[in-house]
Structures are given as structure tokens and as C-alpha cells.
Write a structure and sequence with these properties.
It contains 13 helices and 16 strands. By secondary structure, the protein is an alpha/beta fold. A hairpin with an 8-residue loop joins strand 1 and strand 2. It is globular and about 65 Å long. The structure holds zinc ion.
Length: 444
């Protein structure tokens, strides 16, 4: 680990933003690798400079006076920590041409993809995953939790390819590989052995999908068993349905507490929560908070596949994001799928997914709108367990994005271009897209 500058940690006032370093002469003499000049990190404070050394934020403050071999003029643009995709299927991205889903339902998406799986080669999987990864990186994503399928049909091909991508792209993105048994475990003998082999080979996270197995509770039990064996966090596809029948969320929450896995369990979709009346939802939200479970809402897929049997007044089929936030549950938003049978569209732009969520989950109010950016950054980083490595504070990894907007408040709703993307303090993306008006209005 590179040495941190010997300066106190961020103050209690705002854990995401450090107090500027005192500009002592000694400090000014310190060499830094890169300085981002004049960026906006809070709307109610002056512009700041951000100095970076050894891949980490060395100082944040107004007119730091430090000089570096590389300097970027932020010109008043907003600086945010790198975007975090907390639930993304790179291995089955870009399959839409091969896996049509005529009904638009979840069940047909799963069966169409399963049929195609037999024809997938390692080279094909690698090429699609790499293209999808590049789509995310281009939009300022610096960390991804990649749900990666294994089963007796595809074996460990996806796991091996994603682990190889993780190594090749380590200087561009923090990639966590989830061992995800999409076809269930107990309905396909041999899957359990592959599960443990995937973990032995280096998968970072235990995946699961209780609703797509013959024994949902046993499925959950096994996920916790393997998580304990390998000391890994858990990411479940959980309660993905329009109605509240057959939910296992309460079981997962109680299991999390019993196992002492608080803060290490994330559940994707959780759309069935949205079907619960307030009287049943309230105690479950309190339990989710106690278990410190992250709910990852996946609006592209959830809105696309949800409510398909509703002939009128079609349900949104979405996790109740506002209620979750108000109950103090950690909520993240992620893309889930890119152009396949589950979601036949998507650009890899996580900010656009967050923007969609504002309308879909009614997050436009003054109390909630400013928190939407957190769902794609800080909250998602917490889901990945990035902890004190992540954020705009001294000592944190310099995974940063300069946005083409000048108010933090507008970071999502402007859908700004990502002007600069930095990973571990090195520029990975520079975007110079420019719009010119070639016509002028008529005289008044
Ligand atoms: Zn998923």
C-alpha cells in the first residue's frame, strides 16, 4: 500500500469531504503527482484544488499552491468520486441479437439466455464483456461488481474470463467477480461443487438467486455457508416479482444477523418489497436496516420486465426506494444488464440510470433529489465494501470524475459529459466532445 500523507483523517462534520490541509511551508514543498485545479465539490463552498500522490488524494483545499508534473484545470466543473456499478452482468451483456424475448417476461429472459449459453465460447464471452466494460469506463465508472454465471452448462468459463479481465483492467477499474448460480443450485446437480471451485479460483463474492431454485431457503443457507467458508460478502438476486408472494427477504435478513454478516450482504431487484402495504413494509425495512443489507435497485431491468401480466394500470415493479432511504437502509442503483433478453437497451452510463430512477421512484423532492448521486457513488461503494478507500477525502484512492456541470446539485439531472476520469490518480478517460451552434436566432 502506498504511504499516506501524515495528515489527520477527515473531520466529523462531513465524512466525505476533508478539511483543507494547512498550507505550511513543509506541505508546499511536498511533491505531488497531479493537481486538479479549481473543481467544485460542494455547492456552498468555494472551488478547491485536489492534489494527488501515489494514487491517493494528498490534499484538498482552496488554491493549494502545490505544483505537479501534471495539472488539470477543472475550470469550476464538479468533481465526484468514481461511479460504482454494484450489480452488472458483463458476461451476458450485448446478447440481444441472439436471445429474443418475445413476451418480455423474466422467465423467458432466463430461458432464452440459458438456451444460448450452450453456444457461448470463451472468446465470445471475453469480447462482449470487454466491450460492455469499456462502455461503463467511458462513463466514469471506476468500480464494478460483476455478477458472473457458472453452472454445469457453461462451467467456469465466465468466472475464468472475468477473473482475467479483472487482472488486465486493474489499473482502470476495481472489479469484483461474483460467482452467480443463475440457473439455481439444487435443480442442477453438480452446481454446488462448481460453486466452491469458483470461490477457490478467486471469485470475490458469493452470488445467489433463491427465487430460481427448487428450495429457496436451502439456497440461501448454502450461500451463507460458502460465504463463511471463504470469508466473502454475499450478493443475491432477491424477490424479483411484481407481487409479494413467496418472498424470502425476511429470512435473508435474519440469517445475516445470525451469521454476523451485517454490512456484507446486498440484494438486487427486491421489487416485491414494492408490493407490500405500509403496515407490512415498515417492520421489514427496520429489519433490513438492522441487518445493514444494501438494496440495489435495478430500474432498467425492473421497469422493463415488471408488470408484464398487468393488462392496465401497469405496475412499476420497483423496490420502494424512497421508503427504504427514509428508513435508513443503504440503497444503491446499478445498470444490471446491457442489451440482452433482460434489458434490450442501455449505454453503460450509470448516471442515466440514476436519472431514470428519479421519475420511476419519485425522488424529485428537495429532500431526496440531492441524495440520488449517492446511490451511484457512496452508497454503492459501501455495498462493495470499499469503505475508507473510497470518497473525496484525504488519504482515499483518487478514483475521481470531473463532470461537465458546475453545480453538484445538477450532477445527475444534467447528464453531464464525463470530462476527466481518474483511477488511482491516473487519467484513464478524457472527453472533449463539444457542441457548436452553427445557426443563430433571428433578431428580436
Ligand atoms: Zn442481476
Amino acid at each position: 500500500m502506498p504511504p499516506l500523507l501524515a495528515h489527520p483523517s477527515p473531520p466529523p462534520r462531513d465524512p466525505e469531504l476533508a478539511t483543507p490541509l494547512p498550507e505550511t511551508p513543509a506541505h508546499k514543498r511536498r511533491r505531488v503527482d497531479l493537481v486538479l485545479r479549481r473543481v467544485r465539490v460542494r455547492d456552498d463552498e468555494p472551488l478547491v484544488d485536489v492534489a494527488i500522490t501515489d494514487g491517493r488524494i494528498a490534499a484538498i483545499g482552496a488554491e493549494l499552491g502545490l505544483h505537479a508534473p501534471e495539472e488539470i484545470d477543472g475550470d469550476g466543473h464538479v468533481l465526484v468520486p468514481g461511479l460504482v456499478e454494484s450489480h452488472l452482468h458483463l458476461d451476458k451483456a450485448l446478447l440481444a441479437d441472439y436471445t429474443p424475448n418475445a413476451s418480455g417476461t423474466l422467465s423467458e429472459a432466463i430461458s432464452a439466455t440459458a438456451r444460448h449459453k450452450a453456444t457461448v465460447t470463451a472468446a465470445d464471452l471475453r469480447a462482449r464483456a470487454e466491450t460492455a466494460l469499456t462502455m461503463a469506463l467511458r462513463h466514469g465508472t471506476t468500480a464494478i461488481r460483476a455478477e458472473t454465471e457458472f453452472d454445469p452448462f457453461i462451467g467456469l468459463t465466465g468466472i475464468a474470463e472475468l477473473l482475467a479481465l479483472k487482472r488486465r483492467y486493474a489499473h482502470l477499474v476495481t472489479l469484483q467477480v461474483v460467482a452467480f448460480p443463475q440457473e439455481g443450485v439444487f435443480q442442477h446437480p453438480g452446481t454446488e461443487q462448481l460453486f466452491r471451485e469458483a470461490m477457490r479460483r478467486g471469485a470475490d463474492v458469493v452470488g445467489g438467486v433463491p427465487y430460481n431454485d427448487i428450495a429457496p431457503h436451502r439456497h440461501i443457507d448454502l450461500c451463507f455457508e460458502i460465504a463463511r467458508e471463504f470469508d466473502r460478502p454475499i450478493s443475491l438476486h432477491q424477490d424479483f416479482s411484481d407481487g409479494a408472494e413467496g418472498m424470502t427477504m425476511e429470512y435473508v435478513a435474519r440469517k445475516t444477523i445470525a451469521a454476523g454478516w451485517q454490512g456484507r450482504v446486498a440484494v438486487g431487484h427486491a421489487t416485491a418489497l414494492g408490493a407490500l402495504p405500509p403496515s407490512r413494509l415498515k417492520p421489514l425495512l427496520a429489519l433490513l436496516r438492522e441487518a445493514d443489507i444494501t438494496v440495489v435497485t435495478l430500474p432498467l431491468t425492473d421497469l422493463y420486465l415488471g408488470g408484464r401480466r398487468d393488462t392496465h394500470k401497469v405496475r412499476r415493479a420497483l423496490a420502494p426506494v424512497a421508503a427504504l432511504l427514509k428508513a435508513g437502509v443503504n440503497v444503491a442503483v446499478s445498470s444490471n444488464n446491457l442489451r440482452n433478453a433482460f434489458t434490450p437497451f442501455g449505454t453503460g452510463d450509470l448516471l442515466s440510470v440514476a436519472a431514470l430512477l428519479i421519475a420511476a421512484a419519485h425522488l424529485g423532492g428537495g429532500d431526496l433529489l440531492p441524495r440520488v448521486l449517492d446511490l451511484a457513488t457512496t452508497n454503492a461503494a459501501r455495498a462493495l465494501g470499499l469503505g475508507p478507500e473510497y470518497g473525496l477525502a484525504v488519504g482515499r484512492r483518487a478514483d475521481l470524475v470531473v463532470l461537465d456541470t458546475r453545480r453538484v446539485h445538477d450532477a445527475v439531472i444534467d447528464l453531464p459529459e464525463r470530462l476527466w476520469v481518474l483511477k488511482d490518480g491516473r487519467v484513464t478517460v478524457r472527453n472533449t466532445r463539444k457542441t457548436e451552434f452553427r445557426a443563430t436566432p433571428a433578431a428580436a
